[in-house]
Amino acid sequence: RAHGSLCATCEPLSLRQVLPGCTDLLRPPGPPCLALARALDDPDAQPELLLALLREAVEAQESRTQEVLSGQGAERHLQGLRQAALAAGEPLPEIFLDPAYAQVTHFRLCTLQVRSREGSWLLRGPLVPDGYGVGVGHLSPSPSHLSPSSSFGGLRVAVTAFTCCSHTQAAHLGAAIRGVFDRLGALLRGRSLT
């Protein structure tokens, strides 16, 4: 929405249940997310279609998250292969020399999520000079935080970008994210995803 194109995106996840002290990278499920993004930008998209696409994207993301959390993500396995080749003095496997590999690992969007009862701000820096970091703090609902209009708790989103890149503007991406949240919020008010 902000730049009119998709980019390589990741979110670090802790593998503490499988390998304490290690992380892997979660990539969003591209096709369901792209379908939802396109539909959200279509002013004529019907609410039922938007809800179905949202449900599909959430389910695909949950499935991908569980896959990574169980140690079945691809990123660290590929990193291990690369490091093993380097340690053995072997030439790098061809996948690492392919320009497409460089493109899909140039993470222009890196996100991070944390739940908090305090509603703190979470900052995430970009991984590459022409990228963004997006931190999302979820205010965990508690009886004192809930009101009839905030039954989902609250979100605090912080967008960061380096000033050295003229193509990235944190405020521009933040406005695009706010537009998506506003549209989804309007869609979900009074509707059920179950």
Automatic annotation (TrEMBL):
Q: Which UniProt keywords apply?
A: Transferase
Give the molecular function GO annotations.
Answer: carnitine O-acetyltransferase activity
Q: What Gene Ontology cellular-component terms does the record carry?
A: peroxisome
Ranges of residues in domain Choline/carnitine acyltransferase: 1-135
UniProt key word Transferase: yes
Listed under GO biological process in this entry are: carnitine metabolic process, CoA-linked
Q: Name one Pfam family in it.
A: Carn_acyltransf
Membrane-spanning ranges:
none
Q: Does the keyword Cell inner membrane apply?
A: no
Which superkingdom is the protein from? Eukaryota
Q: Which InterPro entries does the UniProt record give?
A: Carn_acyl_trans, CAT-like_dom_sf, Cho/carn_acyl_trans
The family note in this entry says: Belongs to the carnitine/choline acetyltransferase family.
UniProt-recorded name of the protein? CACP acetyltransferase
Q: What is the lineage of its organism?
A: Eukaryota, Metazoa, Chordata, Craniata, Vertebrata
User: What gene does this protein come from?
Assistant: Crat_0
